Amino acid sequence: METATFLTGQFLLAMPGIGDPRFDQAVIAVCAHDEKGAIGIGIGAQVAGLGFHDVLEQVKIDPGETPNVPIHFGGPVETRRGFVLHSRDWSGQDTIDVAGKWSLSGTLDALRAIAEGRGPTRWLIALGYAGWAAGQLDGEMTRHGWLNVADDEGMLFDTDTAERWTRGFTVAGIDPKLLGNESGHA
């Protein structure tokens, strides 16, 4: 019997020609993957015209001295639901540890802690997520579409959003310019 390979703590990179414009040059941080399915947060694109202060205002939290950083497009599912990918030095009521690499929180206590200066030292905010039913991601990984790469929290916190896709391929030892003439166009 073949043992399943789960991708929690890895990054999915959309291959050129993935066939879904929502995932053109997508980079997804896989936060949970097991026999029941998978959930990932997109970190390769930002929501145009939306900053962290806008999100805090919508949920009636004073931004304090918090920087008004851009918000990431986390994925096409529940696009009004917020998620915080953050360093492991803070934990809230629903925080999950992602393979000992980073943490994921999805409740207002994380936003409050960040705004009050008592949250994680490193973080990014996303709206929406990418989700897969049981076996769905495993099936997609056998077809052209996604490449999984193991990388560290530097992908999340030390790399500009626009550079994450290229970084992922570089980590995998692949020059993304050599992937095809239509690279970057789904």
TrEMBL record:
InterPro entries: AlgH-like. It comes from the Bacteria. One of its GO terms (cellular component) is cytosol. Belongs to the UPF0301 (AlgH) family. This is UPF0301 protein SPHI_15430. It comes from Sphingomonas jeddahensis.
